[in-house]
Amino acid sequence: MAFLRSVLHMLWMLITVVPVALVLLSAAALQFNGHRLYRMAVFWLRLAVQGARYILGIRYQIKGQDHLPALDQPCILLVKHQSTYETFLMPVIMPKDLAYVFKRELLYVPFFGWAIGQLDMIHIDRQQKSQSFQKVVQQGKDLLHKGIWVIMFPEGTRIARGQAGNYKSGGARLAIETGVPVIPVAVNSAVCWPRKAFVKHPGVVTVSIGPAIASEGRQADHLMAEVSQWIEAEMRQLDPLAYPPSTEVA
User: Fold this and answer.
1) Among 126, 130, 196, which residue's Cα sits nearest to residue 158?
2) At what angle do helices 170-178 and 129-145 cross, to 10 degrees?
3) What is the pTM assigned to this prediction?
4) Nearest of 44, 9, 15 to residue 118 by alpha carbon
5) By the 8 A CB rule, do 238 and 86 touch?
6) pLDDT of residue 178
7) What is residue 214's predicted lDDT score, i.e. its pLDDT?
8) Euclidean distance between CA atoms 184 and 205, whole angstroms
9) Euclidean distance between CA atoms 171 and 47, whole angstroms
10) How buried is residue 195: exposed, middle or buried, by Cβ count under 10 Å (0-12/13-18/19+)?
């Protein structure tokens, strides 16, 4: 049954992404502004999340929403990355437009990639690390100035349940460069949507939003260490079965 549901959800996403992407591409050609294009994209993401709820039985709950800054305040969201689910979910639940930092290869994915290429996002070439970071800083400053929140997955890739990836300092460096706070976010999505498995399982995914961490006067490594410590400690609260009782956060 779980396999059949997973097939149906995949079909649901494929069927819905094509018309929404075509509408978005047409709107971009007509020079709709960035916010309107973003809302079109979020419309499809909401369809994907609702499909996950009604087809797969995956629901979500949010903790710590009061930790988000005021809508007129910029911030950088640094999010635990376990599956594709939180990629879809974060724009749906956040009160502001988000700009993802992502690898440019995604731009070549039919319809989905073509559509996100029209949005105010930051796509980077991982082979050119120094140039990529300068692009992140330049575009990040512009987007934050526009009132768009930047979102990054500091582990860089999806990490298996119960494990911690290598937290890269790019998000902390951008925060220090721009003087905005970072918001750590823990997500236990792998309990329902495993990293590399096609079959998904019903359950509740918890998104836990941590207190803002100021970036002024900080060193990037120390700031990222504080972010990773909070996220990994919170993951042990959200998904205790995935961690041995003796495991401690470094």
Assistant:
1) 196
2) 50
3) 0.92
4) 44
5) no
6) 93
7) 97
8) 17
9) 29
10) middle
- pLDDT computed for residue 135 by the predictor: 82
Rounded-to-integer distance, Cα 243 and Cα 45, Å: 31
CA pair distance 219, 115, nearest whole angstrom: 36
Q: Which pairing describes strands 182-187 and 203-209: parallel, antiparallel, or unpaired?
A: antiparallel
In eight-state DSSP terms, residue 100 is: E
* Per-residue confidence (pLDDT) for residue 59, from 0 to 100: 98
Domain 59-242 belongs to what topology? Glycerol-3-phosphate (1)-acyltransferase (3.40.1130)
Average pLDDT of adjacent 10-residue blocks, the chain of 250 residues: 96 97 97 96 98 98 97 96 97 97 90 94 76 83 94 95 94 94 98 93 98 96 97 97 71
Phi-psi region of 78 (alpha: psi -120 to 50; beta: other; left: phi over 0): beta
Tell the residue number behind the tokens 């329902």, with chain if given: 192
8-state DSSP, 213:
B
Tokens of 230: 């909070």
**C-alpha to C-alpha distances, 151 to 11, 30, 140, 144, 175, nearest whole angstrom:** 28, 27, 10, 11, 11
153, two tokens: 């997955």
Contact 193, 88 (CB under 8 A): no
Separation CA 70–CA 108 (nearest Å): 35
Residue by residue, DSSP assigns 58-73 as EEEEEE-GGGSPPTTS
Question: What single-letter amino acid sits at 199?
Answer: V
Cα angle 102-107-108, degrees, rounded to a multiple of 5: 135
